[in-house]
Amino acid sequence: MTSDVFALGLRSAGAQALATYLYEEIRSGRIPVGVKLPAERELSERFSTSRGSVRRVLAALRDEGWITQAVGSGTFSARPANEASTGSDSNGGLLDQTSPAELMEARLLIEPLMPALIVRHATRSDFARMHECLVKGEHAQTVEDFEHWDGELHKALAHATHNHFFLQVLALSNRVRQQGDWGRLKRNSLTPQRRAEYERQHRVIVTALEDRDAESARAALIAHLVQIQKNLFDPPVVE
Length: 239
Fold this sequence. Notes:
single chain; two-stranded antiparallel ribbon
C-alpha cells in the first residue's frame, strides 16, 4: 500500500487496519468493483475505531478512486481509471483490445435494460445526482470536462438501478473510454451542434425517469446511444 494514499495521521491501530484492509482487498479484486461496502457503523465496530476515522479512510479511498459514494445509496468499491489490472482482475488485456465500435455495440445491448430498474429503485438523491451531472455537463468548457460529466451521468444512471451488475459493467465501460482511440474519436466528432443535441437527449432521459416512465426513458436512451454511435464513426462535414 502506497504511503501517499493514506498519509492521514491515523493514530489508532483499528483505523490503520481498516485502511490497509479496504485498499488491499479492493486493489486485489477480492472485493470486486461495484460491491457495496458495509455501513460506517459496522466498519467502526469491526475495526474498533471511531466513525470519524472511518470517514477519513473512506474519504481518502474516494479521492484516489477506489470507492464511490452516493447519498442514500451507500459506498461502493471502484477502480481508478489509470490503475493497472491486478490480482483476480484478469480482463485487463481484453479491455485494452476492446475497440470503441465494440464498446458502443455492447452499450446498445446493455444500457437500455437500466430504465426499468431505475424507475423501480431510484431515490431522490439519485435524481439529484443526475441533475448535478446535467448542469455541470452543460457548463463544461472543454471536451474533456464534458466527457467527464457525460460519464458521470451514465454512472449516476447505473447507481440508480441499485444493481451491482450494472455498476461493474459501467466500470469496465469507463476503463475502455480511457483509451486514446475513444478520446480521439470523441474530440473529432463533438461539434457544438452535436453536444447541444446530447445535452437535450440527456434531459429527456432524466425527465422520463423522474416521471417513472420506463418505456419512454428506454426509447430516449436508445436514441441517444445510436446518435453517439453514428457521430463517433461519421466525421462532421467541414464546410
